[in-house]
Design goal:
The chain has about 550 residues and is an alpha/beta fold. Helix content is about 50%, strand content about 15%.
């Protein structure tokens, strides 16, 4: 009778076959493997001791997957073992227990019941007392699939807990990524907090300024490469980080336009933590999928901003426009994305005419250019004349803003403003007192009803009347409060029309930045006339109304 080892397995065998064992060990913190007994070293020692005690096992080969989940079988050590099993280099798989082999119920069952029998591979799980050669029934025992289900369920539960924990940290505004985005670095004292990386942050600011100033995404990438600035991947490696991007070797430290575009699209640079853009499909399918933008987790003011929110929004607005880059140039055309036909609403097309005395440029309606039919007319206008007309209109609008800004400042300095504020505060106090009186009258209705002084119908009728009166008073109080805020604060510090246009008071030459910041759209009419739709029209109306309401008392 064959003797048994201390693990309870027979150390002999009923035949003289000598097996070539593959000792497989695996560990993954992701699966909740935290026990000391599951460490790679302990597993190796246990399997080596077991193999040495068996008379039917040759010298073993070790296969290790340290840090790989058991929910799938895409593991380097496991793949190498399967290659050797198919080649016949080894023909016996030994593991500490079924969970070390895998935590995927379906996958483990497929290997034990189909793949290994077809390859004539012996399978041994020491702690589970499974040996497909010495005791074939042990593999088909009901306990084996039951244990596999438990292992699978355990991993699913761990995965859900980990995902919930990470989502909680995201909602708290804590950074949970392995590497900080370009422009930031992790706080050495708290890895969930981001600090500005001065050197990279300067590049990020340049990228936004260049883009809003008229440079194309591709032009920015070329300029960075000409300046010798390393791309984000190369920069992180130079900082000593073990960072690797799939395209790193191909790029050789150069900036692709995709990296520039990714930076320009990243709200993180405004001080808002944006996470949860991608997720793993399931704990068994380790495939990343994009998350709809509406489901991203955003938390404002979690770290120092590199660029102002206003600059970021201007950059995003440019992405929605049809912008074209001049041939062999790095900058977009001055009016790219801002010119439309006043009749058909389509974009204007830029053309160049070469003459012996020089080149000149003009715009025509793209509908007319493509169809040459009655769908629309040319609406042609020369580029230099358009530029001059827009510059004059902008300067007029800027002069208006400067004048209004001075009037508002004078009103805000006026002593009458204080008297107006006091009058409004008294008015608000009277309204609030009246509301409190109505509230007390409403509260007294219930005791009157219970005492029999009024009927149920009278109670509900009077209650409705008091509530309607309160709603009217609430609206009145809110309107008075808005007027108080206006008188006390003025509009000079918050009015975007004034602040944005006044900063261009010295504008002498039309720039792409001025067009982007001050103009919403330019419409070209047949015959060369233009209509300019300026930004901040609501703020202009608010400033105008403020001057009208308070200017007489200044």
């Amino acid at each position: 009778m064959a003797r048994k080892s201390k693990y309870g397995q027979p150390s002999g065998k009923p035949s003289t076959r000598l097996w070539k064992p593959a000792l497989y060990v695996r560990l993954s913190r992701e699966d909740g493997d935290r026990e000391e007994s599951d460490s790679i070293a302990n597993q190796r020692d246990m399997l080596a001791e077991f193999a040495a005690a068996q008379d039917d096992l040759a010298a073993p080969a070790f296969y290790t997957d340290d840090g790989y989940t058991g929910t799938d079988f895409d593991r380097p050590g496991f793949r190498r073992m399967m290659d050797d099993l198919r080649a016949g280099t080894v023909n016996c798989v030994i593991v500490k227990d079924l969970s070390r082999f895998g935590r995927n119920y379906v996958g483990v069952g497929e290997y034990l019941e189909q793949v290994f029998p077809l390859l004539d591979v012996r399978f041994i799980s020491i702690n589970d007392r499974v040996d497909s050669f010495l005791d074939p029934r042990s593999v088909n025992n009901l306990v084996v699939p039951f244990k596999n289900i438990i292992n699978d369920e355990y991993c699913r539960d761990i995965s859900n807990k980990v995902r919930a924990s990470l989502d909680l940290k995201r909602r708290q505004g804590k950074f949970i990524g392995s590497f900080a985005s370009y422009g930031y670095r992790k706080d050495p004292a708290d890895h969930s907090r981001l600090l500005v990386d001065g050197q990279a942050a300067a590049v990020v600011r340049d990228i936004f300024d260049w883009f809003v100033g008229g440079m194309s995404v591709l032009g920015i990438a070329k300029r960075l490469n000409e300046m010798g600035v390393p791309n984000p991947s190369a920069y992180k490696r130079r900082q000593g980080m073990n960072y690797r991007h799939p395209a790193s070797d191909k790029l050789d430290g150069l900036w692709p336009d995709s990296s520039v575009r990714r930076i320009l699209r990243n709200r993180l640079y405004t001080g808002t933590m944006v996470q949860g853009k991608n997720r793993i499909k399931s704990y068994k399918l380790h495939v990343s999928e994009a998350v709809p933008e509406a489901d991203w987790i955003e938390v404002a003011a979690t770290h120092e901003a590199i660029i102002p929110a206003e600059l970021f929004e201007r950059a995003q607005a440019l992405f929605t426009r049809d912008t074209r880059t001049a041939p062999a140039q790095k900058e977009v055309y001055l009016f790219s994305g801002f010119l439309r036909c006043a009749d058909c609403g389509r974009a204007m097309h830029r053309k160049t005419i070469s003459q012996p005395y020089g080149d000149y440029h003009y715009y025509i309606c793209s509908t007319f250019k493509k169809q040459h039919s009655g769908a629309c007319t040319k609406h042609t206008i020369r580029s230099d004349r358009l530029e001059q007309a827009v510059l004059e209109a902008l300067r007029h609008q800027i002069a208006l803003a400067v004048e209004m800004d001075e009037l508002v400042a004078e009103i805000n300095r006026s002593s009458t403003r204080g008297h107006n504020a006091k009058r409004l505060l008294d008015e608000r106090a009277q309204l609030e007192a009246e509301r409190e009186h109505v509230e007390q009258m409403k509260l007294s209705l219930y005791p009157d009803w219970k005492a029999g002084d009024i009927s149920r119908e009278e109670y509900h009728q009077l209650k409705t009347q008091f509530e309607q009166r309160q709603a009217g008073l609430d609206g009145w109080i809110a309107a008075v409060q808005a007027r108080i805020d206006e008188v006390q604060n003025g509009v000079d510090e918050t009015n975007s029309f004034l602040t944005q246009f006044v900063q261009y008071r010295s504008l002498q030459k039309l720039t792409r930045e001025a067009v982007v910041e001050l103009i919403d759209m330019i419409y070209v009419h047949e015959g060369g006339g233009i209509t300019i739709q300026f930004k901040f029209s609501d703020a202009y109306a608010a400033a105008k109304e403020y001057i009208r309401d308070h200017g007489q008392t200044a």
